[in-house]
C-alpha cells in the first residue's frame, strides 16, 4: 500500500471494468496501476480508451500480458476480478496467495464449495474479499431500512424481479449463455441481485428451504449445454415470511421489488442499476379500502421517499462507494468479515435454487 492510496490491478479487460475504472478514479482513495489481459494489444487498447475519457491522475497504468504477471507486481495492492465465473476460483486463490486483496464479480462461483475455498483463502492470507454488488453500497438501503417497520409493519412477503431482453446475438455469443463460462446463466447474472435484495430485507437470515424452476434454457452457439435463461424461485423463511424472485434474459428491462407486511408495502423499480436522476427513490404504500354502503373505493396512500445520490459515474454513486469502502479497508489493514459472509450466503441460496430447479422443483432444505 503506497500512502493511503489503494493501487488496483484489473484481471481482464471485461466490459464492466470500464465502469469500475471510472469508479476508482472518482473514489478519492484509489488508482489503477495495471491492467492484465490475455492479449497485450487488448490491455493497451483498454487503457488507451479509458484514459481518453477518464485519465488516471497517477498516470498511465501498465498494460500487462497474462493475469499471472499482474499478480507478481509490487505496485498492486488489490485486484478486481471480472473474469467469467468459471475462471474465478483459480484466480482468486492465486491472487490471495500473492497477498492481493480481492474484489470479485458476481456470482462469485459455480458451487458453494468453490466460493467457500475462495473466501477461506482470502482469510488465511489476510486479504479482504468482497463481491461486486454495487447496490449493496447505495445509501438508499440504509435510509430505507427504518421504513420497513414504518410502512410494512411485520414483513410477510418479498417479491423481486430482475430481467432484460438480450436479443438473438446476446443469446448466441455472450459469455452469459455459455455453460463453460457462466454455468448459472440468468440465475447467476441476475439472480445474485434478487437473492441479495431478499437477504438484505431479511437481515441476512437464510431461508429454511427453497423451490425453483428453470422456465427456459438458452444455449450459446459454442456452449456444450444450456443455461437458465428464465428462472423463478420461492424462498421459505422461519416465522412464515416468504419471498420469490424471477430472472430472465428474454423479458425486457425490469428491476422490481415489493416488501409487503401486515401494515402496507414498499416498492422500488430500479434497485440494481438505478434510473438516471440525482435521487434514489422508494415508495411506501398504506392503501385502504373505504366502504360506505354501495360505494367501495380503494384509496391509494403512497409516500415518496428518496436520498440524494447519483446512479453512476459521480463521486456519490454506489459503485464509487463500493471501491472507496474497499480502499478504506485495504488502507486501514482491518479486514471486514461482513462482505465475505454475505457473499457466501448469496451463493448458498443460489446453489439451493439451482439444485431445486435441476430436480423438477423439489423442495431443497438449507
Ligand atoms: N457488478 C456489476 O454491475 C456487473 C457485473 N458483471 C459481471 O462481470 C463478469 C464479466 O461480465 P462482462 O463485463 O459483461 O464480460 P465481458 O465478456 O465483457 O468480459 C469478460 C472478460 O474475461 C476475459 N476472459 C478470459 N477468458 C475468457 C474466455 N474464455 N471467454 C471470454 N472472456 C474471457 C476477457 O478479458 P481479456 O481478453 O482481457 O483477458 C473478457 O474481456 C460477469 O460474470 C458478470 O456477471 C457484469 C456487468 C456488471
Ligand atoms: O451485473 C450486471 C448488472 O446488470 C446487467 C443487466 O442489466 C447484468 O447483465 C450484469 O452482469
UniProtKB/TrEMBL annotation:
Residues 152-266 form the GFO/IDH/MocA-like oxidoreductase domain. It comes from Roseimaritima ulvae. The keyword Oxidoreductase applies. InterPro entries: Gfo/Idh/MocA-like_OxRdtase_N, GFO_IDH_MocA-like_dom, NAD(P)-bd_dom_sf. One of its GO terms (molecular function) is nucleotide binding. This is 1,5-anhydro-D-fructose reductase. The keyword Oxidoreductase applies. It is an enzyme of class 1 (oxidoreductase). Keywords: Oxidoreductase. It comes from the Bacteria. Coiled coil: none annotated. Pfam families: GFO_IDH_MocA, GFO_IDH_MocA_C3. Its EC number is 1.1.1.292. Residues 14-130 form the Gfo/Idh/MocA-like oxidoreductase N-terminal domain. Signal peptide: none annotated.
Amino acid at each position: 500500500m503506497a500512502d493511503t492510496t489503494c493501487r488496483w490491478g484489473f484481471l481482464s479487460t471485461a466490459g464492466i471494468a470500464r465502469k469500475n475504472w471510472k469508479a476508482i478514479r472518482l473514489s478519492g482513495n484509489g488508482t489503477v496501476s495495471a491492467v492484465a489481459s490475455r492479449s497485450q494489444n487488448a490491455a493497451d487498447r483498454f487503457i488507451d480508451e479509458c484514459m481518453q475519457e477518464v485519465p488516471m491522475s497517477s498516470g498511465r497504468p501498465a498494460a500487462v500480458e497474462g493475469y499471472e504477471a499482474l499478480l507478481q507486481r509490487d505496485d498492486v495492492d488489490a485486484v478486481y476480478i471480472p473474469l467469467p465465473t468459471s475462471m474465478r476460483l483459480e484466480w482468486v486463490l492465486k491472487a490471495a496467495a500473492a497477498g492481493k486483496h480481492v474484489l470479485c464479480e458476481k456470482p462469485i462461483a459455480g458451487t458453494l464449495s468453490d466460493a467457500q475455498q475462495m473466501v477461506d483463502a482470502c482469510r488465511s492470507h489476510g486479504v479482504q474479499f468482497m463481491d461486486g454488488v454495487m447496490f449493496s453500497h447505495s445509501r438508499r438501503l440504509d435510509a430505507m431500512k427504518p421504513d420497513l417497520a414504518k410502512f410494512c409493519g411485520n414483513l410477510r412477503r418479498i417479491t423481486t424481479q430482475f430481467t432484460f431482453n438480450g436479443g438473438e446475438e446476446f443469446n448466441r455469443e455472450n459469455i452469459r449463455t455459455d455453460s463453460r463460462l457462466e454455468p448459472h446463466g440468468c440465475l447467476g447474472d441476475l439472480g445474485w441481485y434478487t437473492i441479495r435484495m431478499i437477504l438484505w430485507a431479511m437481515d441476512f437470515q437464510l431461508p429454511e428451504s427453497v423451490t425453483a424452476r428453470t422456465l427456459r434454457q438458452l444455449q450459446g452457439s459454442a456452449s456444450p449445454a444450456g443455461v437458465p435463461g428464465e428462472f423463478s424461485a420461492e424462498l421459505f423463511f422461519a416465522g412464515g415470511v416468504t419471498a420469490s424472485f424471477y430472472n430472465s434474459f428474454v423479458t425486457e428491462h425490469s428491476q422490481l421489488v415489493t416488501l409487503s407486511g401486515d401494515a402496507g408495502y414498499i416498492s422500488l423499480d430500479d434497485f440494481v442499476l438505478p434510473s438516471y436522476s440525482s435521487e434514489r427513490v422508494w415508495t411506501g404504500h398504506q392503501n385502504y379500502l373505504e366502504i360506505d354502503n354501495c360505494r367501495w373505493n380503494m384509496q391509494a396512500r403512497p409516500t415518496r421517499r428518496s436520498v440524494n445520490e447519483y446512479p453512476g459515474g459521480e463521486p456519490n454513486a454506489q459503485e464509487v462507494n463500493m471501491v472507496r469502502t474497499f480502499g478504506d479497508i485495504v488502507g486501514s489493514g482491518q479486514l471486514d468479515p461482513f462482505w465475505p459472509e454475505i457473499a457466501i450466503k448469496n451463493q448458498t441460496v443460489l446453489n439451493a435454487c439451482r439444485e431445486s430447479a435441476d430436480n423438477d422443483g423439489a423442495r431443497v432444505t438449507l
